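Posting for a labmate who doesn't have an account.
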Amino acid sequence: MNKEVPVWERFALTVREASRYFHIGEKTMRRIVAENRDADFVVMLGNRAMIKRVKFEEFLNNARRVEDAFSEPEIKPEEVPEPPIIKAQTPPMRGRCR
Protein backbone atom coordinates (compact mmCIF):
# COMPACT_ATOMS: atom_id res chain seq x y z
CA MET A 1 0.00 0.00 0.00
CA ASN A 2 2.14 2.85 -1.36
CA LYS A 3 -0.10 5.89 -1.09
CA GLU A 4 1.65 9.16 -1.97
CA VAL A 5 0.78 12.20 0.13
CA PRO A 6 -0.42 15.20 -1.95
CA VAL A 7 1.99 18.14 -2.07
CA TRP A 8 -0.42 20.48 -0.25
CA GLU A 9 -0.53 18.07 2.72
CA ARG A 10 3.22 17.40 3.02
CA PHE A 11 5.23 18.73 5.92
CA ALA A 12 8.40 19.32 3.87
CA LEU A 13 9.06 19.74 0.14
CA THR A 14 12.17 19.41 -1.97
CA VAL A 15 13.42 22.57 -3.67
CA ARG A 16 11.94 21.43 -6.98
CA GLU A 17 8.56 20.60 -5.44
CA ALA A 18 8.51 23.90 -3.53
CA SER A 19 9.36 25.92 -6.64
CA ARG A 20 6.47 24.30 -8.51
CA TYR A 21 4.07 24.60 -5.57
CA PHE A 22 4.83 28.27 -4.85
CA HIS A 23 5.36 29.26 -8.53
CA ILE A 24 8.86 30.52 -7.85
CA GLY A 25 11.70 29.62 -10.20
CA GLU A 26 13.93 26.78 -9.04
CA LYS A 27 17.03 28.96 -9.27
CA THR A 28 15.36 31.65 -7.13
CA MET A 29 14.19 29.03 -4.63
CA ARG A 30 17.73 27.62 -4.32
CA ARG A 31 19.06 31.14 -3.78
CA ILE A 32 16.49 31.81 -1.04
CA VAL A 33 17.49 28.55 0.68
CA ALA A 34 21.23 29.26 0.33
CA GLU A 35 20.90 32.74 1.83
CA ASN A 36 18.55 31.62 4.63
CA ARG A 37 20.20 28.37 5.81
CA ASP A 38 19.46 29.21 9.46
CA ALA A 39 15.79 30.05 8.83
CA ASP A 40 13.13 27.92 10.48
CA PHE A 41 11.69 26.86 7.10
CA VAL A 42 14.88 25.07 5.95
CA VAL A 43 15.72 21.51 7.04
CA MET A 44 18.96 19.96 5.82
CA LEU A 45 19.02 16.21 5.24
CA GLY A 46 22.67 15.60 4.49
CA ASN A 47 23.34 18.02 1.64
CA ARG A 48 19.69 18.09 0.50
CA ALA A 49 17.62 21.09 1.54
CA MET A 50 13.98 20.45 2.42
CA ILE A 51 11.51 23.30 2.85
CA LYS A 52 8.85 23.23 5.55
CA ARG A 53 5.74 24.14 3.58
CA VAL A 54 3.74 25.98 6.29
CA LYS A 55 6.79 27.86 7.66
CA PHE A 56 7.76 28.95 4.13
CA GLU A 57 4.19 30.15 3.52
CA GLU A 58 4.51 32.30 6.67
CA PHE A 59 7.88 33.56 5.44
CA LEU A 60 6.36 34.59 2.11
CA ASN A 61 3.38 36.22 3.81
CA ASN A 62 5.74 38.44 5.83
CA ALA A 63 7.88 39.37 2.80
CA ARG A 64 6.63 42.24 0.66
CA ARG A 65 8.40 40.84 -2.40
CA VAL A 66 10.30 37.62 -3.08
CA GLU A 67 13.41 39.75 -3.64
CA ASP A 68 13.12 40.86 0.01
CA ALA A 69 14.14 37.33 0.96
CA PHE A 70 17.66 37.99 -0.32
CA SER A 71 20.14 39.46 2.11
CA GLU A 72 22.15 41.50 -0.41
CA PRO A 73 22.52 45.13 0.62
CA GLU A 74 21.60 47.80 -1.88
CA ILE A 75 24.59 49.59 -3.40
CA LYS A 76 24.12 53.23 -4.27
CA PRO A 77 25.79 54.42 -7.50
CA GLU A 78 28.02 56.88 -5.62
CA GLU A 79 29.36 54.04 -3.42
CA VAL A 80 30.66 51.96 -6.32
CA PRO A 81 34.38 52.61 -6.83
CA GLU A 82 35.63 53.25 -10.33
CA PRO A 83 37.81 50.52 -11.81
CA PRO A 84 41.50 51.37 -12.20
CA ILE A 85 42.72 52.37 -15.66
CA ILE A 86 45.29 49.92 -16.99
CA LYS A 87 47.36 50.97 -20.00
CA ALA A 88 48.31 48.22 -22.38
CA GLN A 89 51.99 47.95 -23.14
CA THR A 90 53.13 46.90 -26.56
CA PRO A 91 56.11 44.54 -26.65
CA PRO A 92 59.30 45.89 -28.28
CA MET A 93 59.78 44.98 -31.93
CA ARG A 94 62.69 42.67 -32.73
CA GLY A 95 64.12 42.35 -36.15
CA ARG A 96 62.35 43.45 -39.30
CA CYS A 97 58.65 43.21 -39.78
CA ARG A 98 57.64 41.57 -43.03
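Reply:
Got it, the C-alpha coordinates are right above this. The first helix runs from residue 15 to 22.
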